[in-house]
Description:
CATH class of the largest domain: Mainly Beta
Oligomer: single chain
Radius of gyration: 28 Å
Number of domains: 2
Amino acid sequence: MRRLPAPSALPALLLALTVSLTALLLYGGAPAARAADNGEWSVEPTASGLGKRPYFYLTAEPGTTVTDKVTVSNKTSGPLSFLLYAADAYNTERDGGFAVRTLKEPQRGVGAWAKPEREKVTVPAHGSVTVPYTLTIPENAEPGDHPGALVALDERIARGSGGSVAVGIQRAVGARVYLRVNGPTMPALTVEDIAYEPDRPLVPGTGESSALISYTLHNRGNITLNPKVALRAEGLFGRTLLARDLTKIPSELLPRQRIRLTERWAGAPQLDWGEVRLTARARDVRESAAVSFLALPWVVAAVVLAAGAGAVGWLRMRHVRRRRVTLGT
């Protein structure tokens, strides 16, 4: 959901237009093989041949044109009007969910290449409307995957609460488009910017400890990947402290997308020195990265620092005394 800032000239209670892309934000797990549906209307590829298609799966050469049809169905007891548009897809920063650009955002792939025959449709109660569209692939289109969606944006603006601000909400439902432009494919995946943030008691053994491990998964290639990530932590002398496969990974990491993910390590060491390593794999790609950690409670650190400072002071005093003795002789 996106909230646009209101002009300062408007009163404290104002209407900001937001867009909720229902059924386009799918978190975790593989996408369900069904039409995009929010209970009031649905958007899906027009049935042909033996049955329905959950999504548009298209393959094309650069410089060619593909034609297809999309069906918008109204499940309510009154007519509904929609704006039809094509949009590029991306992974959300929060958890890597599948999302699409809004109508006013710049489009560079499917969102720029696909054009519905009608930009506005009114669907009767309990009825449906089928609209042809044309997908024109540029001559210089990059080979690989170009995910997107065909979106039906409800023209109605519903009022919602945004704290002290009245908020207008527009809802949209879209049918996914999985387009592959023929040519060389290059899977590439990296693990970047690993951070280790401990949360432990001041005195070892007086409470529970944990650590938050954050990292970035970056699909640097031109095809969609289904990544798997393994976490391994080793302590002093190579002792294995933790080894597990992570589950909070998006089922689809789209080309050229990077997402920031976190993993909580309950029972992280309170006093140790080691390394956390993350290994990501997808298809024939396997990459890993690591970060070192020093588990040293503040009380222990203070004692060590105090002891160190005392030792330094004693050495200085000893040096001064020796110097005085030397000068005196």
